[in-house]
Amino acid sequence: MAECGRVGPGCGWARVVVVVLTGSVLAGCVSVETIKKQEKESEGYYQQGLSVLETDQQRAFVSFQKAIQAKPDNYDAHYALGSIYFLRGEYDNAEREFRTCVKLDPNNGDAFNFLGRTLLMQSRLPEAVETLEKATSLPLYASPDQAYANLAAALDKRGDTQGAIRALQSALKIEPPKVPRALIYFELGRLYMRLGEDGKAREAFAQAKVLDPQGTVGAEAARMMKQLR
What we know:
Number of strands: 0
Mean pLDDT: 88
Order of helices and strands: HHHHHHHHHHH
Structural class: mainly alpha
Low-confidence stretches: 1-27
């Protein structure tokens, strides 16, 4: 057997192993640097998109696409792109982006909420209800009243008025609220009115008026109250 330092088959194989291992380590280092570069590039495109989103939606759209090309698992870029698709009424594309979001971060309530809202706009009511209920159940979701409001809309559209009322009542319990309380009370009044529960409808509309005395919701609530018995 050849000893270390001597020429022989054993030392030859040792050199091969060392070279292979060294090459693997170097390749790993290159991969880490490449990943960091891609992340930085992707974040740059994403921030660029955010900076022009309000003034140049198309430019922002392209920037978000580039961010995803640089880093396919950039959650924020997928969410932003999905939001633009939603605003454009391209619900199939919006659904694709939000489904990617929930896969990347299955505990993110915003992604489930927007996915549910997208399904609602497509009148895919059972899927919308299931998705929005999932959003409301996530313990770390900071603004579940948004999901409750969308859930109420989906249940209402499905013909479940009582379920919609319960969802809106749940929305009212969330602090701090993201959905204007006046709007929640107005929707409650409208649903109670449909059920013929004029007393409850009047109370809900009155709350909407108090919370939005000079706004359109308050004015519409006052108009609806005049139709009650």
